[in-house]
């Protein structure tokens, strides 16, 4: 019957995500040297390389070879499939941090998340140039290279190292800069790494205390968000809502509340 499906094992989905992210990361890493801009998307600074598309094509083919009834939402190819009614949708970012990738920098990653009936239950993020493979299952914790992750305890806002990012539209960047000017006096320092996947998994690994960014899409936060949350990080939006394109905030719960309160009156969720 349409709409009736057997609930898949999240561990099996995680294992598939890990296998595919490992292979896709290897492909992207091999293709990084000498890569050039193939196209642009939302603005001239929002670039796509041939490897973004080749990596997503590999991911789609590998996932559908195992689970042909699933849907896939990918950054480059949009949403397709799902007619089999499995209830599973894969949310894929083939290369998160494409500008870093284009310039030969190490902070980019392959992110693959599995949703079951709209809830992210399994994830893998491969950061090949760092030699880091992150994975998580909802309710079962997260790991990096097989070792359990536990984010460091919260610090006061004034001692927090906060990661953020900027959009591709000039008008949005101007507003984000205004917000940043107001945020910096209240925190330890800011970091702008260029990849939400690396930033969010970095919270789980203790490389920063908090993160916020406007303009992210589900493929930016689905996989790394689960990994971070399973390590003790709260991942949401403004006023404690769910993560959204308007704003994503991530930190230990006590620090999350303080950062949320700082960002709300600054218009961090508006252009």
UniProtKB/TrEMBL annotation:
Membrane-spanning parts: none
Enzyme type, top EC level: hydrolase
Gene3D superfamilies documented for this protein: 3.40.190.80, Fructose-1,6-Bisphosphatase, subunit A, domain 1
Pfam families assigned: Inositol_P (PF00459)
Cofactor(s) the record lists: Mg(2+)
EC number(s) stated in the UniProt entry for this protein: 3.1.3.25
Reactions that this protein is recorded to catalyse: a myo-inositol phosphate + H2O = myo-inositol + phosphate
UniProt superkingdom: Bacteria
Keyword tags: Hydrolase, Magnesium, Metal-binding
InterPro entries reported for this sequence: IMPase, Inositol_monoP_metal-BS, Inositol_monophosphatase-like
Membership in a protein family: Belongs to the inositol monophosphatase superfamily.
Protein known as: Inositol-1-monophosphatase
Protein's organism: Nocardiopsis changdeensis
Biological classification of the source: Bacteria, Bacillati, Actinomycetota, Actinomycetes, Streptosporangiales
